[in-house]
């Protein structure tokens, strides 16, 4: 049976051998809350002793009034969550999220306490992840690849249609994640008085990096369409596994391009928050999505993918004399005239 004859796989869970067991995940959540309790206590000590820290994180808010509510719910609540009191997990995570929303609104309206808003948003994200680990014993990341984002092979293999769809996908995704979201983040950064002026040469370097990684992104996307009979979109993936184009050197060129573009955008517009956004997003993708993608590839392509994964690194490009992009590979799975353009190709989908 050829890979294209297999049923599309949705919601694949990665092999349990590659993931920590439930008790260890719960332990990780408890350790986060322990660190958060210590950090919260240290922050309140700094607020009391350092007026500059108080102004940067609380602005015009009354420290005494805030401490009466925050210390029991945030500091003590996090400490109790670290001791594995499940009810404390709900209290600490809910309170942290509520405070984060309030601080974002407060900092945006008053232009004060911008650093406090950033810290509380970070704490809220960490609390939600750690709390989910403790309550569920895992992060239900399989729900992120359901519905329109479920893994499915492309129904068409006509090169023209695939290239058009790939172009549309790039325009939409790059527009959202590299233009709209960075613009919103940068506007908050300016409003919260957290902007840092970058030297002009750094901005120029950011533009050069943006161009470089954009070329890599286009090259990778076209490789998926030309050699894989698919698109970068999970709902219309490549039908064949390829080790050609940029995929001959690294398994995730599309992801590397996206991360590089995000960081480059942050450098180019002089926004450290956009750089952080790109790096945090890449970590979340690597942790939550990549294992499911690799499990899907392994199920659809079996030993072929295992051999490819053994030869080509996930993140570090590998160059050797054996890597070539020649067209001398034939594909025995071509079954109609529409596949003629891809008959001698192996394909891969976006990572």
* pLDDT < 50 runs, ≥5 residues: 1-19, 321-351
Distance between the first and last residues' Cα = 25 Å
- DSSP strand count: 0
Radius of gyration: 24 Å
The whole-number mean of residue pLDDT values reads 85
**Cα shape:** globular
**Separate helix tally:** 10
The main β sheet shows up as: none
Structural class: mainly alpha
What letter string, H or E per element, gives the SSE order?
HHHHHHHHHH
Residue fraction in strands: under 5%
* Helicity range: 55-70%
How would you sum up this structure, described in words?
The chain is mainly alpha-helical. It contains ten helices and no strands. The protein has helices at residues 22-49, 51-58, 63-82, 86-110, 114-136, 159-191, 200-228, 253-268, 272-301, 303-311. Helix 1 (22-49) packs antiparallel against helix 3 (63-82) and helix 1 packs antiparallel against helix 5. It starts with 21 loop residues before the first helix and ends in a 40-residue tail after the last helix. Mean pLDDT is 85; it is low at 1-19 and 321-351.
Question: Quick summary of this structure?
Answer:
This protein is an all-alpha fold and 351 residues long. It contains ten helices and no strands.
């Amino acid at each position: 049976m050829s890979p294209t004859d297999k049923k599309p796989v949705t919601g694949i869970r990665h092999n349990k051998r590659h993931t920590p067991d439930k008790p260890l995940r719960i332990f990780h959540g408890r350790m986060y809350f322990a660190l958060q309790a210590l950090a919260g206590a240290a922050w309140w000590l700094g607020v009391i002793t350092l007026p500059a820290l108080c102004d940067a994180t609380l602005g015009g808010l009354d420290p005494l009034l805030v401490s009466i509510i925050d210390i029991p719910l945030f500091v003590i609540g996090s400490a109790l969550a670290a001791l594995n009191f499940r009810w404390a997990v709900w209290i600490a995570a809910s309170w942290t999220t509520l405070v984060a929303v309030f601080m974002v609104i407060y900092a945006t309206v008053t232009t004060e306490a911008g650093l406090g808003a950033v810290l509380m948003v970070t704490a809220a994200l960490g609390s939600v992840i750690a709390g989910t680990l403790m309550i569920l014993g895992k992060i239900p990341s399989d729900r992120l690849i359901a519905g329109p984002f479920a893994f499915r092979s492309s129904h068409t293999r006509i090169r023209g249609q695939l290239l058009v769809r790939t172009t549309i996908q790039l325009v939409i995704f790059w527009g959202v994640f590299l233009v709209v979201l960075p613009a919103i983040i940068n506007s908050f950064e300016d409003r919260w008085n957290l902007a840092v002026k970058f030297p002009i040469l750094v901005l120029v370097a950011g533009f050069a990096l943006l161009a470089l990684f954009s070329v890599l992104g286009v090259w990778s996307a076209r490789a998926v369409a030309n050699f894989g009979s698919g698109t970068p979109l999970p709902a219309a993936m490549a039908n064949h596994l390829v080790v050609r184009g940029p995929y001959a050197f690294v398994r995730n060129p599309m992801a590397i391009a996206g991360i590089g573009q995000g960081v480059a955008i942050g450098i180019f517009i002089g926004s450290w928050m956009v750089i952080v956004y790109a790096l945090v997003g890449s970590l979340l993708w690597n942790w939550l999505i990549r294992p499911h993608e690799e499990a899907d590839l392994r199920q659809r392509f079996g030993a072929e993918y295992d051999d490819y994964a053994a030869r080509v690194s996930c993140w570090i490009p590998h160059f050797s004399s054996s890597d070539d992009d020649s067209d001398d590979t034939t594909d025995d799975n071509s079954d109609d005239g529409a596949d003629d353009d891809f008959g001698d190709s192996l394909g891969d989908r976006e990572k």
